[in-house]
Design a protein that fits this description.
The chain has twelve helices and 15 strands. The chain has helices at residues 16-26, 44-51, 86-89, 107-116, 137-142, 198-214, 229-235, 243-250, 253-258, 279-289, 306-311, 324-339, and strands at 3-7, 32-36, 56-63, 69-77, 80-84, 122-127, 146-149, 156-160, 171-175, 239-242, 262-267, 270-271, 293-298, 301-302, 312-316. Strand 7 and strand 8 (156-160) form a beta hairpin. The radius of gyration is 20 Å and the shape is globular. Keywords: Kinase, Transferase. It comes from candidate division WOR-3 bacterium. It holds the Pfam family Gly_kinase.
């Protein structure tokens, strides 16, 4: 049986690199193919290192979402630079996810972009796993845009270019979701995981709707990704693409699926957000299109489609486990017993 394993990160527990190595250890047949993947957030640089083994590390000093000094690694290959947004504005750089989420800033990303935008033909920014939702206001300010923010907050409510504003026409953002800025499945759908209180989400949803109408971008794909970093990319002159498009250009991902017998993915929680343009959702969509058997190793399942639940085989991780690496290894061994008969 020809099997393909797409090793994705489990946020806050295991990196796609760690899961990649577990799969490689257990499934060592010549018919087994293991590929590290990323939506654009956590694990994006691990994916880049897999695609371009000779890529060189470049480290920058910048700021966390809370303004603390941090060092961030990136990779450069030929005339391109690869940046992972989660390493700058991600969860590991925030002390308390529920404390003042509206005051977190993306300026740390802006500092790096301002420093390098003249040095590379292309700058790839992996968007995902962010704790900010300032719509890029911090980065816009560093790049000399005029911004207006909500009082006592970093949340953008108005934006203007001037003669000193820096355009990033060489910026290509690889987005974890296709979500627009506005709407039920827009940026507001991801606010709760960034620590925003339930009673505040409706207000921010109204704000995003207002901004989408003001800038004539209502329903435009990708602009709600990364807490509005897709919006930032768009207005700074860059281009947003899906993680599927990026992988398709660098790895023959659809061909791998088409020629396999069995597909395995993993995700911390497999829910309806997983199907909103995220890489695992796209893999599932193509796998079912080609009538492949699909296994999902996950900590939780919460999808509305009963039909989809029937089509997928779930292997559930014990969320109470004290060692997630051991727990994942155990479940991968169970998977091997299932697929090998």
């Amino acid at each position: 049986m020809k099997k393909v394993f797409f090793a994705n990160s489990l946020k806050g527990t295991l990196s796609n690199r760690e899961i990649f190595l577990i799969y490689k250890k257990i499934f060592s047949s010549k018919d087994d193919t293991v590929i590290p993947v990323s939506d654009g957030g956590d694990g994006f640089l691990n994916l880049i290192k897999f695609i371009y083994p000779s890529a060189k590390k470049r480290v920058f000093k910048t700021f966390s979402p809370e303004g603390e000094k941090i060092e961030v690694e990136t990779f450069e290959f030929k005339n391109s630079l690869y940046i992972e947004s989660a390493k700058i504005v991600g969860f590991l750089n925030v002390k308390d996810i529920f404390k003042n989420p509206e005051k977190r800033s993306s300026k740390g990303l802006g500092y790096i972009l301002k420093k390098v935008y003249k040095d590379y033909k292309k700058i790839y920014l992996g968007i995902g796993g962010t704790t900010t939702f300032d719509l890029g206001s911090g980065s816009f300010e560093i790049l000399n845009y005029e911004t207006l923010k909500l009082p006592d907050s970093e949340i953008l409510i108005d934006l203007k270019k001037n003669k000193n504003s820096i355009l990033l026409k060489n910026l290509i953002s690889v987005c974890d979701v296709r979500s627009p800025l506005d709407g039920k499945y827009g940026a507001l759908a991801f606010l709760k995981q960034k620590g925003v209180k339930d009673e505040d989400i409706k207000f921010y949803g109204s704000l995003f709707k207002y901004l989408a109408k003001k800038y004539n971008i209502s329903g435009k794909e990708f602009l709600g990704s990364g807490g509005g970093l897709g919006f930032f990319t768009h207005f700074a002159g860059g281009k947003n693409i899906s993680s599927w498009e990026f992988l398709s250009k660098n790895i023959q991902i659809e061909k791998l699926i088409k020629e396999s017998d069995c597909i395995v993915i993993d995700e911390g929680k497999f829910d309806d957000q997983s199907l909103m343009g995220k890489i695992n959702g796209e893999i599932v969509k193509r796998s079912l299109k080609y009538k492949k058997k699909v296994f999902v190793i996950t900590g939780d399942v919460d999808i509305k489609s009963k039909n989809l639940k029937k089509l997928l085989t779930f292997i559930i991780l014990d969320k109470k486990s004290k060692d997630y690496k051991i727990e994942f290894f155990k479940k991968a061994k169970i998977l091997k017993e299932i697929v090998d008969g």
